[in-house]
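Can you please make up a protein's amino acid sequence together with its fold in token form to help me picture the idea?
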Amino acid sequence: MSSHIARFNPEGLHETPGYHHITVVEAGRTAHLSGQCPLDLAGEVVGGADVVAQTDQVVANCRTALAAVGAAPEHVVRSVIYVREDARGNGAAGDGADAGGSPRLDAVWERLTSSPLGPAFSTASTILGVSSLGYPGQLVEIDLTVALPPRPQDQPLTDQPSSAPAPRSGSS
């Protein structure tokens, strides 16, 4: 864990399943990763209706983005995980009556926390069930905020032009 990042759970708040209620970052550089989707290099959704396969692609994309800014999962200070749910809010066949949330949310959280990106989710994290995401068939998306390690003086920060935006339409 980086010395400029502190994570803790204060007394008076409930126990968590692995994340921390509060993340404090000493002043420094941050990176805000755009929502990482389960897209391959061709911009196609990977995994079809398999939420685990989509989650694995999102993990791979997050790791690529982190590496591009010289960061690791331990540098993540905030994550927001979006998981597409059905109209009943359960994301999978069933009545949605389980007390622990939806089977799809549970499957995504378990997969993420046991993945190579897992340390990113020990910080302030939110997981949400949503009715739709930006690409047809998309089931998972993750936004990350990163407290970057100091940049070596010989590596200036440069802006790169963005590629043409991929078409985003309502999901199915």
Q: What stands out?
A: Residues 51-68 form the longest helix (18 residues). Confidence is low (pLDDT under 50) at residues 92-99.
